[in-house]
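Researcher: Go.
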Amino acid sequence: MRALRTAATGMAAQQLNVEVISNNIANMNTIGYKKQRAEFQDLLYQNIERAGAQSSDSGTIVPTGVQVGSGVKAGSVYRITTQGSATQTGNQFDVMIQGRGFLQVKMPSGETGYTRAGNLAINDQGGHRGRL
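Model: Structure:
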């Protein structure tokens, strides 16, 4: 049963990895999209033979011991915020941020949002607005 539980944790982790990769592919042409990467962590290990234990009647020593892992879990999914490539759009309001930083935009709800997408436009009220 332990082997099945361990295998199930691996399958769940791989499912998350496939979902993150699929999301990256689906959004690869989205302006301002930053790809993501999943990181994983080992679960607990059980010591079967401790380090330095004798492993046979002939006196063979196990220098590192023997451990059995209990699986894997998702540690985090993080965003990779590297600089994208410049693209000529022909829109006079488009901007590109080089280096660090974000554009501050006013969302339709009135809240402040932050984006690196520089495809700007003029709204009905004559003001500039950004798109997220």
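Model: The radius of gyration is 25 Å.
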